[in-house]
Amino acid sequence: VVKASASAEQFAPSNIALCKYWGKRDTELNLPINASLSVSLDYLGSHTRLIPIEGQVDEVWLNGQQLQPGAKFSRKVSEFIDLFRRDQLLYFRVETRNNIPTAAGLASSASGFAALTLALNDALALDLPSEHLSILARMGSGSACRSLFTGFVEWEMGQREDGLDSHGIPLDHHWPGFCIGLVEIDAGEKATDSRSGMQRTVETAHLYQSWPLQAAADLSRLHQAIAERDFALLGQTAEQNALSMHATMIASWPPLLYWQPDSVAAMQKVWRLREQGLPVYFTMDAGPNLKLLFQREDRDTLLQHFPDLETVEPFGH
Ligand code: PMV
C-alpha cells in the first residue's frame, strides 16, 4: 500500500525512432509486434510536476492551461495514474510543460508519459529500477518506454504475455556530431492518432504482413551502422524504414495518408540535396512533419535550404 505522497518534478526527453514501432500484439498492455530503435532528444522534452491534492479527481494542466477532466489527454493521464493508485484515494495536480517547439509538430506523448512515470516514482517513493519504469511508461504510450533513457535506445519487443520483458534498453554507443533537424509542415493535431492508425493498418493492410521482417532487418542494420559509425547506412536504413511504415499505412482501408503536399516537397528537396552530395536523410512519424538526420559539419549548408530548421544534437555539442 502506497502511503507516502509528496510533490515531485521530473524531466524526460522526446525521442525519434530510426526503426519504427508500428502495430500492437496486445492493445491493453501496448506490446509491440516489432522491436524498435530510437534516439532521445537531449534537452527537448517534457517537465512534469505532481502535487498531491484533496479531491476525487486529478487536475491536469498542459503548458500552463488547465484541461477539462473529459479532455482526451486528461483522461489518458488519469487512467495512467490509476495504475499506481489502485483503490486508494490519491489525487494529483499534474502540470506538464513541453519545451519542444510546438511549431515543430512533434508528438509529446512519449516524453510526457516518461516524465509522469518518473514523477510518480518520486512522489510515491517507489524507488523502482529504470527497466520497471520503462515498462510502466509503455502502458501510457508505447514509445514512452524509450524516453526513460538518453542516446540510442532499443525497445525489445519481449516474448512474455504479461509484457515484463518489453521495455527500453539504452545502447552503449555515443555519436558526437550526430544531428536531428525538425521540419515543420503542419503543427496542428493529427486527424488519426497512432493507436487507431496502427489498429487500422494491422487489420486492413495486406502489405503489413511484410512489416515485421522489414523492421527486423532494419534493426540489425542500424546496430551495425551505430557500432561502425556508418552515417550513410544509418540514414538510408532509417529513411527506408519510415517510408516502408508509411507504405503500410497508405495500403490500409480507409487509406491512411499522413503526408501533405509540402511533406512530399520536403522529401524531394532532401533527395535533390543528396544527389548533389549532401549526406542528409529524413524520417517521419504519424504526421506530416519531417525529421532530418545529418552530421554537424553539414548543418550550415542545410540551414541554407531549410532556414527554419530546429536542430538538436542528441549527444551534446
Ligand atoms: O507511442 P505511440 O503510441 O505514440 O506510437 C508511436 C508511433 C510512431 O511514432 C509512428 C513510431 C515510433 O516508434 O515512435
UniProtKB/TrEMBL annotation:
> The Mvd1 C-terminal domain covers which part of the protein?
186-306
InterPro entries reported in the protein's UniProt record = GHMP_kinase_C_sf (IPR036554), Mev_decarb (IPR005935), Mev_diP_decarb (IPR029765), MVD-like_N (IPR053859), Mvd1_C (IPR041431), Ribosomal_Su5_D2-typ_SF (IPR020568), Ribsml_uS5_D2-typ_fold_subgr (IPR014721)
If you read the UniProt record, what top EC class would you report for this enzyme, in one word? lyase
Instruction: State the UniProt keywords alphabetically.
Output: ATP-binding, Lipid biosynthesis, Lipid metabolism, Lyase, Nucleotide-binding
Q: Name one Pfam family in it.
A: MVD-like_N
Name a single GO cellular component: cytosol
Which terms does the UniProt entry file under GO BP?
Answer: isopentenyl diphosphate biosynthetic process, mevalonate pathway
**Domain of life of the source:** Bacteria
**Which GO molecular function annotation, any one, does this entry have?**
diphosphomevalonate decarboxylase activity
Q: What is its EC number?
A: 4.1.1.33
Where the record annotates domain Diphosphomevalonate decarboxylase-like N-terminal, the positions are: 12-164
NCBIfam families referenced in this protein's UniProt entry, alphabetically: mevDPdecarb
Q: Which PANTHER family match?
A: DIPHOSPHOMEVALONATE DECARBOXYLASE
Q: Would you identify the family this protein belongs to, as annotated?
A: Belongs to the diphosphomevalonate decarboxylase family.
What this protein is called in its record is diphosphomevalonate decarboxylase
Organism, by scientific name, is Marinobacterium marinum
The organism that produces this protein has a lineage beginning with: Bacteria, Pseudomonadati, Pseudomonadota, Gammaproteobacteria, Oceanospirillales
State which gene encodes it. mvaD
